[in-house]
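Field reference: sequence -> structure
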Amino acid sequence: MSTLPHIGRLAAGPRNSITDVAGVTVGHCTLDDGPVQTGVTVIAPHGGNLFTHRLPAAAAVINGFGKSAGLVQLEELGLLETPIALSNTFAVGTLLNAQIAHTLRANPQCGRSLPTVNPLVLECNDGYLNDLQAMAVQPAHFDAALQAVSSEVAQGSVGAGRGMSSFGLKGGIGTASRVAVVGAAGQGYTVGALVLSNFGRLPELILAGDPLGARLAAAEPPDAAPEKGSIIILLATDAPLDARQLKRLAVRAGAGLARTGSAYGHGSGDIALAFSTAQQIEAEAECAQMALLADHLLDPLFHAAADSVEQAIVHALFAAETVYGRDGHVRVSLRERLAASN
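Structure field:
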């Protein structure tokens, strides 16, 4: 398969990106310097102050082999109060501090007269290509990614995706969207996905239902190595959902992930996080009233979540470029691998 397939029957948004959900922007800072092949990706759920105007959110831990920060409080309160930062495993502490510093600049009383902030940082291990021990990611790289946020999203070997691997090939950042038509009135809501794709074994790769990986792996020596990768999946929607409903939406990310050939292996950290931009919740409000979509109308959104996640993983594979990293390690892009097999 050499052409980019469209997953499912639902239409994509105009950009086929998470930024089709109005207000969502994404920025990257890429580090490409010999053995240092890593970076930072920041997702801004809206353009205002998230610490004071929060969004309902929830996470689903599909397999918990990960070192993320902020998920405990997110699970408890169901609120997103910082941008979402993605990077490599050893950068979590640095980005946690960078998130706090960013919040303090906009909210000087945070941790004094105001509550502390819950920074959200998610990671995958890019250590095959990237020298993790160099601890290359610095607070300035978070700031650069945040300053670069845009509705136009670069994909592939960029930002946090620079050193990531998928199915023994080059992985990285992928994004997609689907429009779900809900209810008798035919209301359209957008579900957008962004993935940090760093998982999978080549023999198990399924591309739009085609067992492509088995054919590509047939010419190689058998590889019995276990799955040790990870994926971070972010879902945004403009549908009016609360944290409980968003957790249900996040769970459906696993359907899209499984379709690509993942069985969520023992060493794989697979985390999905969903948020809604439909209604902001003021931090100091004494009563938060929300208009919510009825549960029995959620099925089209569940389909949109599964399809957009699968599409985002496909986009990451097709957009990625071959990267040479530490100690002579290399991950070849899917496009280059397909060209060589023809």
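Note: Residues 102 and 143 are 8 Å apart (CA to CA).
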